[in-house]
Design goal:
Shape: elongated
Largest sheet: 11 strands, mixed
Number of strands: 30
Distance between the termini: 28 Å
Radius of gyration: 22 Å
Number of helices: 5
Mean pLDDT: 82
Low-confidence stretches: 1-50, 174-181
Oligomer: single chain
Strand content: 35-45%
Structural class: mainly beta
Helix content: under 10%
């Protein structure tokens, strides 16, 4: 039985999604992310359930506390590194605990501190790498089922009512009724001039407008209902010149060249054509349920309990993988019921030196992770518990503004049936 099928067995809850109206649809598929210089003086606190964060208890200093039912925060200081490690352990089998992918903006380029993005959450960590000086995530970002950007070519972490998974994403666009002829697609990412197969969908998260792109066919859709990547609307512009088009919360633009343009042409040139849009973060092989929340990362650290082949890509970057840096990571156990969000402080010896990627792999294994993903680290590394930063960000200026964050939140248990 695959690790996903084991998890799916433990997450039998299902959520219903409205069907997209006839027209064009987008489908996102997931193919299976004390003071400075002093040792902290911390008394050992009570340990949590067997395994997980308590595995760090043999460290020189250790404390652990439950911050909410099903959510535990632990801290360990290990002189061998030295390492200052913060761990959030989350029981995902509880119906009153959920995850949220949080993003400043719109637009996508907006940044905010993890502490700002953690408002009203139990806890949060910084998430994906982002473009500088802007804050656009490198990988996908899905919020409440809506794709803000994606897919990118790096791994991602996804959560839904039915489980969690880590893998790479691709987008396929198709006309409803023509699902056997998919074309790759992007959401809020410009397509290269040589790309004649990709359909691009632009929403107000991209910015105030989408620039001219000669040689493309463009549809501008006035959105009538639903979210900007799932719902319906009327085609109000059919443009074969690739001119610039405005974007707002009620308008989306679809654009393509070559074969992608022919796919869009199936919608028709009439402004009276009704368009259906759907974009869901979903696995291609196992038909995993659509993700409610997703963030990107790099590299994948563990897959089914083994070191991921993706780790070699990270180790190939000499200044990144083999060197010690502050790190942020996440991992899930084989059942998919337990999630660990981890930060390791760095660049602050003798308090904490940071970890290499292989050292981070061993830490995630020690916690019990079966699958694990490295997130943005360095000066971005931050963990917030009850709206208070609990780690020590390494930037001289303090906590850094980041592209996005992953938050743990309390909620009422959804009604079943």
């Amino acid at each position: 039985m695959s690790s996903w099928n084991r998890r799916r067995r433990d997450f039998a809850r299902r959520r219903r999604r409205p069907r997209a109206p006839a027209g064009l649809a987008l489908l996102l598929l997931l193919a299976a992310c004390a003071g400075r210089g002093e040792a902290p003086r911390v008394a050992a606190g009570p340990a949590g359930p067997a395994g997980g964060a308590p595995a760090l208890a043999p460290a020189d200093s250790f404390r652990s506390e439950e911050i909410a039912p099903g959510v535990r925060h632990a801290f360990a200081w290990d002189a061998r590194g030295p390492w200052a490690i913060h761990v959030l352990e989350v029981d995902l089998s509880r119906c009153d605990v959920a995850l949220e992918a949080r993003k400043a903006g719109p637009p996508l380029a907006a940044r905010a501190r993890t502490s700002e993005l953690s408002a009203a959450a139990l806890a949060a960590v910084n998430a994906d790498f982002f473009r500088l000086p802007a804050g656009t995530p490198v990988g996908p970002h899905v919020r409440a089922g809506e794709i803000l950007i994606g897919p990118g070519d790096r791994p991602a972490f996804a959560w839904s009512e039915d489980g969690v998974w880590i893998g790479r994403a691709r987008v396929a666009a198709f006309a409803l009724g023509q699902r056997t002829l998919p074309a790759p697609a992007q959401v809020n990412r410009a397509i290269d001039e040589s790309d004649t197969t990709t359909v691009a969908l632009f929403t107000h998260w991209f910015g105030d407008s989408v620039a001219a792109a000669p040689g493309t066919l463009t549809l501008r859709v006035r959105h009538l209902r639903g979210m900007t990547t799932r719902g319906g609307g009327d085609v109000v512009a059919y443009d074969t010149l690739g001119t610039a088009h405005p974007l707002d919360g009620a308008t989306v633009v679809l654009r393509g060249r070559g074969g992608a343009a022919r796919l869009l042409a199936r919608v028709g040139p009439s402004p009276e054509w009704r368009l259906g849009l759907e974009a869901v973060f979903q696995d291609a092989l196992d038909a995993r349920p659509a993700a409610l929340e997703a963030v990107g990362g790099f590299p994948e650290l563990l897959r089914d309990g083994e070191v991921s082949p993706d780790l070699e890509r990270g180790m190939g970057l000499e200044s990144f993988g083999p060197r010690r840096h502050p790190r942020t990571a996440l991992g899930v156990d084989a059942s998919g019921r337990r999630l660990w969000l981890v930060t390791v402080d760095g660049r602050q010896e003798p308090y904490s030196a940071g970890m290499t990627l292989p050292e981070l792999v061993e830490l995630m294994r020690k916690l019990g992770a079966d699958d694990a993903l490295n997130l943005d680290g360095g000066g971005s590394t931050a963990m917030v518990v009850r709206e208070r930063v609990v780690n020590r960000p390494s930037d001289r200026e303090g906590e850094r503004s980041v592209g996005n964050a992953l938050a743990v939140v309390e909620r009422r248990c959804p009604r079943r049936g």
